[in-house]
Amino acid sequence: LYAALLRFKFQPTQCPYTGSSLGSDIRVLVNQLESRHPGITFTLLKSFEEIANNLKRSLEFPQVRKCRICGSPAMGDLCKACELLAKLKV
């Protein structure tokens, strides 16, 4: 509905392989739970958001630096490509 209202181009038909996918099985399970326990979908989503927020707060993200040779993103002095080239002595 959102894509149609904003006139995005999209494929309106369902993928023929979705019936056998894990996502499809999970969708069926969540819909069954929702019919027996109204509101459980919202509760699940809020729980996932809370877990994700707690993980973000507890994880330390290393600072991304620039490779001293090529300027690409790197975790250390050199990016992985330049590290590999240095090991190969290219």
> Strand-and-helix sequence, N→C?
HHHEEH
pLDDT average, as an integer?
A: 89
Query: What composes the largest sheet?
Result: 2 strands, antiparallel
Helical percentage: 40-55%
| Dominant shape | elongated
In short:
This protein has a domain at 64-90.
Which features does this protein show?
2 strands, 4% strand, two-stranded antiparallel sheet, mainly alpha, 90 residues, single chain
Summarize the structure in words.
- The protein is mainly alpha-helical.
- It has a domain at 64-90.
- The protein is 52% helix and 4% strand.
- The protein has four helices and two strands; from the N terminus they run αααββα.
- Strands 1-2 form a two-stranded antiparallel ribbon.
- Strand 1 and strand 2 form a beta hairpin.
- The chain is elongated and about 60 Å long.
- The termini are far apart.
Helices and strands in order:
Blueprint: H1 2-5, H2 22-36, H3 40-58, E1 65-66, E2 73-74, H4 80-88
Antiparallel strand pairs: 1-2
